[in-house]
Automatic annotation (TrEMBL):
Belongs to the PIGV family. Pathway: Glycolipid biosynthesis; glycosylphosphatidylinositol-anchor biosynthesis. It is an enzyme of class 2 (transferase). The gene is LOC104214412. InterPro entries: PIG-V/Gpi18. Its EC number is 2.4.1.-. This is GPI mannosyltransferase 2. GO terms for molecular function: alpha-1,6-mannosyltransferase activity; GPI mannosyltransferase activity. One of its GO terms (cellular component) is mannosyltransferase complex. Pfam families: Mannosyl_trans2 (PF04188). Mannosyltransferase involved in glycosylphosphatidylinositol-anchor biosynthesis. It comes from Nicotiana sylvestris.
Length: 500
């Protein structure tokens, strides 16, 4: 296949992914409107909107279309109430600091600029809600786009990447990606950041990954990808190229990038401490203010939501464990599949090559041209050699020129690049930590949306659906699971019934 024809194929697949992303959002929004018209909400307290404590809001002003305004406001369900309230009034209460500020800031900016002319017609709160819906659905479409591009770089197979991206468009947590929740913003920032990291655009990647930590607390874990990159590059500089100064520079650069990613979350904790603790007397201070390491987020999660290690292991929570069992099972199978495929690579954290398990590799993701990394650390190729087919000439890069992985051009034939198992390692390690946290620490039913932005789930799901070694029923089970949770989620969540 020529580079031009492969580029055309990638463009067609990109358009197809965008089409699926847009259509899936339209279908989900239609389902929400349908269920809202057929059923009465279980809880209507979200429509109560007291004035901001600062008295700066104008939400009580009369509007031209009160019924439309009421419909939008009544659709603001569950945690969406917090995000809209923060966008409107700021952080007024201690428990609101559990919700990080990226989404409220974006909602406030969009409602105050693009949608500001709509305020006289439907009111401020309805405009805030509308801004949140538009923002998150648009972010989801971009997240699907970046997942496809990231998958092509990692898997070296546009067909597998396409299936994985379509599966993401219909993922079981879809209701949250079209609601005023942080899932869409987090997915966009984290997947987009990883895409730029794999392309070698480290500065863009660091900014995007930092924004993911400004959207959700677990975004700080994305610093682990930088640490993994730094570990391999510093090892190569110190022990392969025998260049101690270069290794030191790599370590310093990696440390600074990692700190930059976790800084937004730390800064927000400092902001909460300043607002809640500074200026009050010792008797007025909340307990967490007096702690040696005053972490507001941890206190809120434990005090208000009962989050903690094994605290959710109760008989009455068995239904919630059942609700989360599909996504946790999928995560477990994903981890086992890739670890069994390249055990030596995972045990050595990518420092040792491994021959793939032949039985598993028979119909798995592309393994042609490279059974494992050819040298310690990440394999590097000269960018100027791109597009020369299988007869690529390699040169030894200058110190500091290496990238995280191979650098394909935007429209380059993916068949010209060999799959590197080492690139999968940090994704699986990240999934292991996330799945363990969801099962042992968090409210387990949140696992469905907590893990929904993890690319390996969709890569493995794509493999299952196309595998000749597995029964087709497993592919049908995955699609049925996604469809059932989309229907169930749109029905329950939109009408204020508990769902993940």
């Amino acid at each position: 296949m020529t580079g031009k024809s492969s580029g055309d194929l990638n463009h067609r697949h990109t358009h197809l992914v965008l089409k699926y992303a847009v259509v899936s959002r339209l279908i989900l929004i239609s389902l929400i409107l349908l269920w809202r018209s057929l059923l009465s909400p279980y809880d209507t307290s979200a429509s109560i909107n007291p004035s901001c404590l600062s008295g700066s809001d104008s939400g009580s002003a009369s509007v031209y279309f009160p019924r439309l305004a009421s419909a939008i406001e009544d659709s603001i369900a569950w945690d969406s109430v917090y995000f809209v309230r923060i966008a409107q009034c700021g952080y007024e209460y201690e428990q609101t600091y559990a919700f990080l500020p990226l989404l409220p800031i974006c909602i406030s900016l969009l409602s105050g600029t693009v949608f500001a002319p709509l305020i006289p017609f439907i009111g401020q709160r309805a405009v805030l809600g509308l801004s949140g819906y538009v923002l998150n659905n648009f972010a989801f479409v971009l997240a699907a786009f970046y997942l496809y591009r990231l998958s092509v770089i990692i898997l070296k197979d546009s067909e597998v990447a396409l299936r994985a991206s379509i599966l993401f468009c219909l993922n079981p947590a879809s209701i949250f990606y079209s609601s005023i929740y942080t899932e869409s913003m987090y997915a966009l920032c984290s997947i987009g950041g990883l895409y730029f990291l794999m392309r070698g655009s480290n500065n863009f990647a660091t900014i995007w990954l930092a924004l993911s930590g400004f959207a959700r607390s677990n975004g700080v874990l994305n610093a682990g990808y930088i640490c993994f990159q730094t570990m391999h590059r510093s090892y190569e500089a110190a022990f392969v190229k025998k260049h101690a100064c270069a290794a030191l520079l790599v370590l310093i650069s990696g440390a600074l990038r990692s700190l930059f990613i976790v800084f937004p979350f730390i800064a927000f904790q400092a902001y909460g401490y300043f607002n809640m603790c500074v200026g009050g007397t010792s008797d007025e201070m909340r307990p967490w203010c007096k702690a040696r390491l005053p972490l507001l987020y941890n206190y809120i999660q434990s005090h208000y939501w009962g989050v903690g290690f094994l605290r959710y292991f109760q008989v009455k929570q068995i239904p919630n464990f059942v609700l989360a069992s599909p996504i946790l099972s999928l995560a477990f199978c994903t981890i086992i599949h890739y670890v069994k495929l390249w055990p030596e690579v995972f045990v050595s954290l990518g420092f040792r090559a491994s021959s793939p398990n032949k039985e598993l590799a028979a119909s798995s993701i592309p393994l042609e041209r490279s059974a494992g990394p050819k040298s310690v650390g990440f394999s590097v190729e000269n960018r100027s050699d791109a597009g020369q087919g299988n007869s690529l000439r390699r040169r030894k890069p200058a110190v500091g020129e290496e990238n995280y992985v191979i650098q394909p051009s935007e429209d380059e034939a993916t068949e010209n690049r060999g799959f590197k198992p080492v690139t999968i390692v940090p994704f699986i390690l990240h999934l292991v930590f996330m799945a363990a946290t969801a099962f042992f620490v968090m409210h387990v039913q949140v696992s469905t949306r907590f893990l929904s932005a993890s690319p390996p789930l969709y890569w493995f799901g794509s493999y299952v659906m196309a595998s000749h070694c597995l029964s087709k029923r497993w592919g049908y089970i995955i699609w049925t699971y996604c469809a059932a949770y989309i229907l169930l989620g749109s029905l329950l969540f939109s009408n204020f019934y508990p769902f993940t």
